[in-house]
Design goal:
alpha/beta; TIM Barrel; binds ligand LGQLAAA5; 218 residues; 33% helix; 8-stranded parallel beta barrel
Amino acid sequence: MPKEVTSADLYIKICGLQTAATVAACVDSGVAAVGFVFAPGSPRTLTVERAIRLAGEVPETVESVGVFRNQPIDDVLAISNRVSLTTIQLHGGESLTDIRRLHREGFQTLKAFSAVAYNALSPQEKLGWAAERVLLDAVEPGAGVTFDAATLKSGALPTFWLLAGGLKSSNVSALLTSLFPRGVDVSSGVESSRGVKDPQLIRDFIHAARGAVPHGAH
Ligand SMILES: O=C(O)c1ccccc1N[C@@H]1O[C@H](COP(=O)(O)O)[C@@H](O)[C@H]1O
């Protein structure tokens, strides 16, 4: 996190939402982004029809993010347009060329890498991603598993990067003040059981994350 990031501009994304109540808990708490999972095989995967209804509850000031993994870019674009998403998060082997196409189509992007995969990029490859919004995660996204975050301390990181992977209200503060990402993304850590989001756990997480950084006026 650039050291000047304050509680007002810390980017907090809550992912895997499936109900109007949890969307409202996020929006009312002033998150930067809410995530809807379209990658198949997750307990959080929702239908396009339900996502359209939920995205309709998200104000323009909050990013509506679709989460995809190794799906054809034409399909990603079709879903994103139907749901009126603002942002596309990609968790597979998608390339910078794919990212640039999504930008040309008017979407913001988040490109996820496992920390292991990101660390294994060459300096030239890291340079290619340096200006993109990148999310650094554990190897299995959405599993609530942490990774050795110290491995991120030695190499070059993009200007805008988010930390994800096993975050919860009890560990987010220490990780924010140790790694200084631009923000955080959480799914499992705000669930009462796998795939089931809890509005109070969402509020607790946001409170804990904001408490870790200097106070800033909204
Ligand atoms: O949440 C999912 O099920 C999911 C499925 C496929 C790709 C990404 C997914 N979620 C992303 O996983 C990370 C961290 O999740 P967790 O907090 O460790 O459970 C986050 O970036 C979600 O957007």
